[in-house]
Amino acid sequence: LSWHEGDKVTVDFAFPKAKETTGRIVYAFGEKTCQVTFEVRPQGEKLIHPPRVGLTCRIPSAYDKVSWFGRGPHESYSDRKASAFFGRYTCAAETLFFDYAEPQENGNRMDARELELTAADGRTIRVVGAPKFDFSLWPCTVNELEKGWNPHYCQPGESRTLNLDFGQMGVAGETTWGDAAVPWPEHRLPTVGTLTYSFVLE
User: Fold this and answer.
1) 109, 124, 134, 198: which could join 37 in a potential S-S bond, CB 3.0 to 4.6 Å?
2) Nearest by Cα to 39 from 143, 202, 193
3) CA–CA gap between residue 190 and residue 50 (Å, rounded)
4) Do residues 111 and 71 touch, judged by C-beta distance below 8 A?
5) What is the pLDDT of residues 134-162, one digit of tens each?
6) Is the peptide bond preceding residue 131 cis, with omega within 30 degrees of 0?
7) Tens digit of pLDDT for each residue in 39-97?
C-alpha cells in the first residue's frame, strides 16, 4: 500500500513469513535531496532474530570510487569491530567486496555518518546518516551471492548492489561454526519494539 501527499511518498508493507510484522518507508523529496525513513515493527510470538534490517538498491558500476566517514578501513560487524576505527576512508569500489572461499555476506562497514560514491566524470551519489547507517557494496545481487557468485568465475555487471542498513546481527563463531553458531544476545537484532533509521540521498 502506498500513497502520495505533497512532497512525500509513503509505502506500507508486510512480511508474510514473519507473522504480523509490518513496516513503512517514507520518501520525503527536496529540491535535490530525498530523505528516506525506514521502520519495521516486529509482531508475533517466537519470532527469529533477523540477520539484517535495511534497504537494498542497484547503482551503475560507473560509481567506482567510494569515500565514507565511519568505521574502517576493513569490514566490521557488531561483534567484529574493535579494530575498525572511526575515520574518513577512500578506496576503489571493487575492494569493498571480500572474496571469501565460500561466497557469503561480506564487506559491511558499520556506523557510517556519510558515504560518497563518485564516477570518473564527477557525478556523485551522497548518503548522509540521521545519524548513522551501515553499508556494503557488492558487484553482484543478493540472490547471486546466495547461489555462490564468485569473482574468479563471474564478471561484474553494469551495476552494483548498495546495501544501506539499520544493522545486522553479529558474525558469531567464538566457540563453534555452522548452524550452532549464534551471536551473543547483545549482538542480535531485536524482535520487539520499532526498528527505525533514516538517511538523506543527495
Assistant:
1) 198
2) 193
3) 8
4) yes
5) 999 999 988 988 888 877 777 778 999 99
6) yes
7) 999 988 888 899 999 999 999 999 999 999 999 999 999 999 999 999 999 999 999 99
73: preceding bond cis by omega (within 30 degrees): yes
Is the pTM above the cut of 0.90? yes
Nearest alpha-carbon partner for 10 in 22, 20, 1: 1
Q: What is the DSSP string of 120-147?
A: TTS-EEEEEEEEEEEEEEESS-HHHHHT
Q: Is the dihedral of CA 41, 45, 49, 55 positive or negative?
A: negative
Record the cell numbers describing residue 113, joined without a space: 555518518
Beta-bridged to residue 129, according to DSSP, are 199
Q: Parallel, antiparallel, or unpaired: how do β-strands 22-29 and 8-14 relate? A: antiparallel
The owner of cell 544501506 is: 164
Q: How far apart, in whole angstroms, are the C-alpha atoms of residue 129 and residue 165?
A: 10
